[in-house]
Amino acid sequence: MSSIYIHWPFCISKCNYCNFNSVPCAGNKMDFREWLNLYRRTLLAFGNRYYRGDLVTSVYFGGGTPSLLPSSFVNNLLDEIQKLFNLSENAEITLEANPDAINPSKAKEFKKSGINRLSIGVQSIIDSDLMMLGRTHGSHSAKECVFEMAQIFNNISIDLIYNRPGQKVEDWEEELIEVLSFPIDHISLYELIIEDRTPMKTMIDNGILPAPDNSSEFFERTLEITQNAGFTMYEVSNFVRTTLGEGAKILDNFYVSRHEIHKNYLKFSPPPSKVSQHNLSYWQYLDYFGIGPGAHSRVTLQNGKKLAIMQTKNNFEIEYLSREDKFKERLLMGLRSNICGVNLFDIDDDIKLRFNIKNKLEKLLKNEYIVMYGDRVVLTYTGILRLNLIIRYLADSGVI
Ligand SMILES: C[S@@+](CC[C@H](N)C(=O)[O-])C[C@H]1O[C@@H](n2cnc3c(N)ncnc32)[C@H](O)[C@@H]1O
Ligand code: SF4
Asked: Which end of the chain has fewer CB atoms surrounding its CB within 10 Å, N or C?
């Protein structure tokens, strides 16, 4: 086991685009003590059943808006984790924060509790777009928050959403260039997904907002601009600031000499310190253990079987993953990351035969959509542009 995810599903209000498991809730009406007991009981039950004493290298408080939690809540849970597991001395411990749900004194308390990485949901630095997204903060407070938090934490990341309704590529370029000048070493840039049953989907369906552009231009420009600013993509939405030209060189190769890619990515092993250790464990398909309503876990039993567990409000839904499910999940997670990829060694021979993997990989290699490093399959630049298509092609009978 390598990571623990703690899901806090409450927010100040619901954003127009969001279909995450989160609900608006007034903080002053919450009985945090009761919730804490529930989380502690779950940790204990899980720890005793599957993982007591196992090494934990990352803990992630996500949401929802976990920066609405009292720091004593975070402190208490981290204590509990320390008692139950072998929490690594240099574990990455992240908390997601919304700009209007954190301030310097609260941030200092979180730091004292053990948080050493902050992920701030900026989303945009344009007021009218923040309003369209349904955010409760403006551009000024988002920027102020990033600069204040950078004084307190030396590992902060920010989230932005691009290809918003009505956004022009040139406007995104300008916004991104400004954001990359902030005091951050890591950034997550998500292309907007118009989710079903969200106010944004209704506004688009009713012609109140224009549908976002579906070309790859936004993504391509995002790659170029981040590279020019000294950030390296290591997953389709995640970028890390790299020093000594190392990152730029890696990305140059990504464009220029595709066959060199993986050799260069290997320079990332061990990865730069600001690569998200927690997310790396997802992309490598390692076990993780999620607690909180709606949180998911992947647990490997001693007999090698893997369980998918979802926590509902008071219970757990447990499902055995078939070997086919595991294969598909591995593809879905691994191919997103150009430093992880997928190791064919981890996939059963009969699954490879059934899905005709050998022939499909030959075809992908010929088209220069992938490179192989030993048994590891990694997408190239042109491959990443076709990520979903390639996953579908490998995981079922899709065509390329
Ligand atoms: C788990 S969410 C919550 C983080 C935090 N509550 C916030 O909103 O600032 C993590 C990130 O997913 C991204 N996200 C959420 N919904 C999205 C959507 N429909 N399309 C693209 N990105 C989305 C946002 O950038 C968000 O910061
Ligand atoms: S604050 Fe984050 S989790 Fe909450 S509704 Fe907005 S995007 Fe979703």
From this structure: C
